[in-house]
Amino acid sequence: MSSAILTTVFVLALAASLAVRLWLAGRQIEFVKAHRDTVPAAFASRIGIAAHSKAADYTVAKQRLSMLHTVVDAFLLLAMTLGGGLAAIVAWTETLPASPLWRDVALFAVAGVIYGAINLPFSWWHTFRIEERFGFNRMTLSLWLSDLAKGLAIGIALGLPLLVLVLWLMRAAGPYWWVWAWGAWMAFQLLVLVLYPTLIAPIFNKFTPMGDSPARERVEALLARCGFRSAGLFVMDGSKRSGHGNAYFTGFGKAKRIVFFDTLLVRLAPEEIEAVLAHELGHFKLRHVAKRVLWSALLSLGILALLAWLAQAPWFYAGLGIPDTMLDVAMSRPGVALELFLLALPVFTFVLEPLSSLYSRRHEFEADAFATRHASAAALSVALVKLYEDNAATLTPDPLHSAFYDSHPPAAARIARIEALSTRPPMPLAA
Ligand SMILES: [Zn+2]
């Protein structure tokens, strides 16, 4: 394979993914705007026109920002690869008075700073312009900055040892370094899973055990009915940052915690909280989480094997913007292959996005069905409508945009299925 072929394929794939993303975003904006002034019939009695138009405007505002971000990212990627950006960073780090491994770490640091500097204004605009305008933002600039600093510190504390280990394995572990790197990656993910609930999440939020309440009684009865053991029910001060509500599981094995956002508890009735939790329980009981972990483990093994193969091919570097005069240097530094690969990979995995979305939507339907068997379907439907309203999620997404990206089924399809299931008699839980 010649480098010219890779360059051509890369540019075509980047142009195609950019065109598809912008086309879908444009469709979404047009579709949502066209349905802005009429609440869909299925929701007419439950959602007012003001909330519906607000959701439409919010969706359009977010979509416009994401279109700009998509274009900026595409140009940044071109500048970093074929534009010679990464080559310049390689050349500069080569002059540093450090060992080759630490020169590679410096390469990642410089690329990270560039990407961070480009992404930061988008994140600021999202929080302080869009979320603010629609009344969701509760963050001050100082909280936003302190989140940023904490996130960076945790990223370095956890990410740097992993990066150093992988770069070391790439040099020292022989032709099968990728199997070792995969093991390190799996162990790292497990470690984060263990550390997240007890050490990482509390750095950002306060978690208090859920007090005695009718909601707590219902939740505990549900857990007992489903034979689910957890290490505790917690309430998180989500209202510190945003008006959006949520509930989730964290940790694994017997150390699983259930976390409710305070915003959710305020908004939903006890029966509705129970139904929302039953949906989340469904994801666990139906092994959705385990299946996702397994898929991602297989995928990352394949991706690392691909990287190991590409890292030895001169056309891989030359085809993505490393000049011939620098090939020897680049190929002697595994960090170059790793960074180049991580930059270029999303252009090619873009086509997998609809598959992953489809898989996820199937799981959502299954979790909803589980919830209707173990809690009230009517309450789940009411809770979801409230959450759609509170999160200003559009009820009228463009069907193609939704099929491509959405991890959750469109509101109308979801509610219709839940209500169809609600007429069914409850089923006893199999052991
Ligand atoms: Zn779900």
Structure description:
With 431 residues, the chain is mainly alpha-helical. Helix content is 71%, strand content 4%. The protein is built from 17 helices and 4 strands. The protein has helices spanning 3-34, 49-80, 85-94, 100-133, 141-172, 177-204, 214-225, 262-267, 270-285, 288-310, 314-319, 327-331, 334-349, 353-374, 377-390, 399-405, 411-421; strands at 207-209, 233-236, 247-250, 257-261. Strands 1-2-4-3 form a 4-stranded mixed sheet, with helices on both faces. It is globular. The structure holds zinc ion. Zinc ion is lined by residues 279, 283, 364, 367.
Provide a concise account of the structure shown.
This protein is mostly helical and 431 residues long.
Characterize the quaternary organization of these chains.
Answer: single chain
Strand order of the largest sheet: 1-2-4-3
Q: Give the cofactors and ligands.
A: zinc ion
What fraction of residues sit in β-strands? under 5%
Determine the number of helices (DSSP H or I, runs of at least 4 residues).
Answer: 17
Give a count of the beta strands, DSSP E runs of length 2 or more: 4
Distance between the termini: 56 Å
